[in-house]
Amino acid sequence: MVWTAEEVVSKHGSSNWTAVPKKAGLKRFGKSCRLRWANHLRPDLNNDSFTPQEEDLLVKLHAAIGSRWSIIAQQLPGKTDNDVKNHWNTKLKKKLSDMGIDPVTHKPFSKLLADYGNIGGVQKPSTRTGSLSKDFKNAILLKSNPYPIPSQGQRNMKSQTSLLPKMEPTENSFFHNKNYTDIDLAQFQVPISGEGCLPSTPSPSSSSSTYSTENLPLPFCWNDFLLEDAFPAAADNQEQETMPAFLSKDFVSQIENVIQQSENKKEVISSHQNPATDLQLSSSSEFSFLEAMLNQENDMFLNFPHLMEEPPSH
DNA sequence: AAGATTCTCAACCGCACCAAG
DNA sequence: TCTTGGTGCGGTTGAGAATCT
Length: 314
Prior knowledge:
about 325 residues, mainly alpha, two-stranded antiparallel ribbon, 16 helices, about 0% strand, DNA-binding
């Protein structure tokens, strides 16, 4: 009798995947068996579709730690990293984009454009971005992830999940609240100064900002989907804003601790490597990836000044 | 009804880490 | 110290399903 992989795993455990296909009589590599087991055969899997609460939690976790699907999946009982990854890529990314939020940075696109021009400090964004192609601007937006792809060391930290606080979905769910579903953030007048976010609770300090909350339909705050400001220079402006409940300082600091442990190890290694690489990899660097891009662009414009010229109008 | 397009998701791929020899 | 095998991870692909025109 040929054993099924499921029987083999239940009998021998899932610690030796190379043995599983042999014992089960399968013409598969252990790696494929492990994947099959992890994504489909595990008894604790929940094949139900994502609930709004789970989606909400997924968005929040992604905002906090980026695309570390295995960690996120462990916060969602019964969901696999593949489930989470697929659901994010096929649904939630589009959902956020439709709402005018960059699914990578969790910031409004308009905010990103404003910051893009602001950080360089050379020209107004309308001038700078106006000289760039649409594709290039899109590339900038998509690559400005403030949470770099974790090193293998980070990925292999078996204990990091246990360090994450358990997060419960709240009634103030992002996708739950139907008021949020029809938001067109493009209509918001985001100030060039980079303040961007509408405080959840209007504060005296916000009264001098360039927008008015009076005409805005909703108390929306994109910071609810952001762990940490990607642009340290602008972070001071937001210090007085209320920290969203799900991104409590405890939660933020715990995640930062997890990441910092591996960052420390990584920095020792990278100190012997190309500093330009460090610039992009180190989340604790005072430069963001966006700034690095802008610096490179400035260099390019210095070398090729004709690129600064507006295309001829027709 | 049929072809085109979009969506979904299982599986594959390559990379990196770890442990053992 | 180097090599090798096992493992885990995130990114990507492609087939089938669903939807649109």
